[in-house]
């Protein structure tokens, strides 16, 4: 039996590697097959790239519209919370955060609810909706309807009821709509109509609608 060749360098490949050149690709391809999926997961799940339209879906306009009591569209959640905390107003915030992905722009949503808010000195519930940390909608539901209807029309003469008891005005990017007149009628009360006044920035409403229309198929919903 021949003695082992001690002069062979430890980094020198084995004889089968030298003789079977086509087989050299086998371990390489196996390695690629193992590593590639891991790299994809790291890219998409751990550190996903940003969507090319991210800026468009997160930009803050320089000309916000006024909703109610000084609240403006495009205000951040923290800015609104700071104001409410200073006024010692109790509220709850419910965030919805989908997983970040390069397949779609961000779609972060926050809903802030104040159960005992006073608008025009009438108590009710105020709900604020945020899209990517920008206030885009405010809805007030009054608890004392007859008195609130009168105060609302005095405060905002743009809201003139139509023959169905509803009112809607669009001024620039601002949309204001209400059904308080209808809810205050005998028919409205018999139907137990929930009264509301809603303020919206149409730019953000339309952008959210566009997001849903274009990216809902790729959307990874957060775990409940």
Describe this protein's structure.
There is one protein chain. By secondary structure, the chain is α+β, with helices and mostly antiparallel strands. The protein folds into two domains: 15-46; 77-215, no CATH class. 32% of the residues lie in helices and 22% in strands. The chain has a seven-stranded antiparallel sheet with strand order 1-2-3-4-7-6-5. It is elongated. The relative contact order is 0.12.
Brief overview:
This protein is 32% helix and 22% strand. It has 224 residues and is an alpha+beta fold.
Summarize the helices and strands and which ones pair or pack:
Elements lengths: L14 H5 L5 H22 L30 H10 L5 E5 L12 E11 L2 E10 L3 E8 L2 H11 L11 E5 L2 E5 L1 H4 L2 H5 L6 E5 H14 L9
Antiparallel strand pairs: 1-2, 2-3, 3-4, 4-7, 5-6, 6-7
């Amino acid at each position: 039996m021949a003695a082992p060749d001690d002069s062979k360098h430890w980094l020198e490949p084995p004889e089968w590697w030298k003789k079977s050149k086509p087989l050299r690709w086998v371990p390489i391809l196996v390695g690629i097959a193992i590593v590639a999926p891991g790299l994809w997961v790291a890219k998409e799940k751990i550190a996903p790239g940003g969507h090319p339209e991210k800026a468009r879906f997160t930009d803050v306009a320089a000309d916000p519209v006024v909703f109610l009591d000084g609240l403006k569209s495009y205000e951040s959640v923290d800015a609104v919370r700071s104001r409410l905390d200073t006024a010692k107003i109790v509220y709850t915030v419910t965030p919805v955060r989908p997983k970040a992905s390069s397949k779609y722009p961000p779609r972060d949503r926050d809903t802030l609810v104040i159960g005992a808010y006073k608008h025009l000195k009438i108590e009710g519930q105020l709900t604020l909706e945020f899209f990517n940390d920008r206030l885009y909608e405010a809805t007030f539901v009054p608890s004392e309807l007859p008195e609130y209807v009168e105060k609302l029309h005095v405060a905002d003469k743009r809201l003139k009821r139509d023959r169905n008891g509803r009112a809607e005005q669009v001024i620039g990017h601002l949309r204001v709509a209400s059904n308080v007149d209808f809810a205050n009628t005998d028919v409205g009360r018999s139907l137990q109509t929930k009264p509301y006044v809603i303020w919206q920035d149409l730019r953000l409403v339309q952008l959210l609608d566009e997001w849903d229309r274009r990216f809902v198929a790729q959307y990874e919903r957060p775990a409940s």
